[in-house]
Amino acid sequence: MLRVKKILSYVAERIEAAPEKPDPAALKPDEYLELYCYDQKLPNAMTLATLRAHVWKGGADVMLYYKSNGRKQIRFERGQEEEEEDRSGEKPPLAETATALVGTE
Fold first, then answer.
1. Of 56, 52, 67, which is closest to residue 102 (Cα–Cα)?
2. Distance of alpha carbon 53 from its chain centroid, rounded?
3. What phi and psi, each to the nearest 5 degrees, are found at residue 78?
4. How far apart are CA 51 and CA 33, in angstroms?
5. I need a labelling partner for 104 at 20 to 30 A (CA). Which of 26, 33, 39, 72 fits?
6. CB of 35 closer than 8 Å to CB of 63
């Protein structure tokens, strides 16, 4: 079963570059990121099925938001879209841009 803790690990992989030398004392994603649905902080042990049944009661796709809890500074890597924009001076067409997870810090 997919849990909030695993979703946070996935988000952390997408927003930060992996370190060249893994630090055993480094914080785990669930220690510095929080996941929210309908402005409700989700516990790390909650499953996606439980979330859909008890928190997201709508029939559409589940909307999740993440944010840092302040225990770790998150450095965002420049994406390919930003590099293309810098070179050309304008944004690439919408169809060519990659969909990214959006969060707040």
1. 67
2. 22
3. -70, 130
4. 18
5. 26
6. no
**What are 78's two structure tokens?**
């420049």
Q: What is the DSSP string of the chain?
A: --BHHHHHHHHHHHHSPPPSS--TTSPPHHHHEEEEETTEEPPTT-BHHHHHHHT--SSSPPP-EEEE-SSSPPPPPPPHHHHHHHHHSSPPPGGGSPP----B-
pTM of the predicted model, to two decimals?
Answer: 0.67
Positive or negative, the CA dihedral 46, 22, 83, 76 is positive
Query: Which residues lie closer than 8 Å to 52 by C-beta, 6 or more apart?
Result: 62
Distance between CA atoms of 77 and 62, rounded to whole angstroms? 26
CB atoms within 10 A of CB 7: 21
Q: Each residue of 42-66: pLDDT tens digit?
A: 999 999 999 988 888 777 888 999 9
CB atoms within 10 A of CB 92: 15
